[in-house]
């Protein structure tokens, strides 16, 4: 992702409906892990950018490290008091089997060799450790936005599952996210000429946030969405 897009992201992530709900999605996944008896331990946030998701991990008791490839993103996360390392997701500078959790939200789609990043996620997880992955869904939604933010692909369910399984992970759950607003996203993307990252009027932001929040309580995870979310683990 270009430096200008990273700075846009950092400026928007505390208030923008998409980033707020994505953090809520992560928080919900962490609560479900806790309910199964998983205790917080060392965690890695791959592609952390400004560190929004890293802060969620920390708030839930995990000991997270923010990993960011770009100097701009690493600097932003460091300025927010986070433990940051600069590195490539395809070659993580961490020992094998040392982490209880790896979060990689919206990073794999930026990599030509996404299979290398998936293999690295499996390598650094301890046996039984969890991976939480989010990626953009459905090539039919490809637009100028994808080009502007540096995507090289969008995923379908079968492709994402196969990527994780070939890396040696066991897929526990795979679902769609941002389902209710998919028609709006598809309409907007057909007309877009660049990134969708932009400030919104408060009333628009609130309306979109209300819709995406409602999705938490509706049985729509099996329907086509704008993103896919996956939970997997490294087998013992």
Explained architecture:
By secondary structure, the protein is of the alpha/beta class. Helix content is 40%, strand content 20%. It is built from nine helices and seven strands; from the N terminus they run H-H-E-H-E-H-E-E-H-E-H-H-E-H-H-E. The protein has a seven-stranded mixed beta sheet with strand order 3-2-1-4-5-7-6, sandwiched between helices. Helix 4 links the parallel strand 2 (63-68) and strand 3. Helix 2 (17-35) packs parallel to helix 3 (52-59) and helix 2 (17-35) packs parallel to helix 9 (202-214). The model has no long low-confidence stretch (mean pLDDT 91).
Topology summary:
Layout: H1 3-12, H2 17-35, E1 42-46, H3 52-59, E2 63-68, H4 71-79, E3 84-86, E4 99-105, H5 114-124, E5 125-136, H6 144-148, H7 157-166, E6 170-177, H8 182-191, H9 202-214, E7 227-233
Parallel strand pairs: 1-2, 1-4, 2-3, 4-5
Antiparallel strand pairs: 5-7, 6-7
Helix pairs in contact: 2-3, 2-9
In short:
The chain is an alpha/beta fold.
Number of strands: 7
Mean pLDDT: 91
Structural class: alpha/beta
- Oligomer class: single chain
Poorly predicted ranges: none
Order of helices and strands: HHEHEHEEHEHHEHHE
Percentage of β-strand residues: 15-25%
- Helix percent reads 40-55%
Largest sheet, strands/sense/barrel: 7 strands, mixed
Terminal Cα separation, in Å? 35 Å
């Amino acid at each position: 992702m270009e430096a200008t897009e990273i700075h846009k992201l950092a400026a928007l992530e505390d208030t923008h409906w998409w980033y707020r709900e994505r953090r809520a999605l992560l928080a919900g996944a962490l609560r479900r892990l806790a309910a199964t008896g998983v205790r917080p331990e060392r965690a890695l946030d791959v592609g952390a950018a400004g560190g929004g998701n890293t802060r969620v991990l920390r708030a839930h008791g995990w000991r997270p490290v923010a990993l960011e490839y770009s100097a701009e993103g690493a600097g932003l996360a460091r300025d927010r008091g986070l433990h940051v390392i600069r590195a490539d997701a395809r070659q993580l500078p961490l020992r094998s089997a040392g982490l209880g959790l790896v979060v990689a939200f919206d990073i794999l789609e930026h990599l030509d060799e996404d299979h290398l990043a998936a293999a690295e996620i499996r390598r650094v997880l301890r046996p039984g450790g969890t991976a939480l992955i989010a990626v953009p869904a459905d090539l039919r939604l490809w637009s100028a936005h994808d080009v502007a933010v540096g995507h090289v692909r969008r995923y379908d369910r079968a492709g994402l599952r196969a990527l994780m399984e070939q890396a040696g992970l066991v897929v526990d759950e795979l679902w769609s996210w941002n389902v209710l607003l998919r028609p709006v996203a598809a309409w907007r993307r057909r007309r877009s000429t660049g990134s969708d990252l932009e400030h919104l009027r408060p009333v628009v932001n609130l309306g979109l946030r209300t819709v995406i929040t409602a999705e938490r309580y509706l049985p729509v995870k099996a329907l086509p969405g704008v993103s896919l979310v996956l939970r997997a683990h490294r087998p013992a």
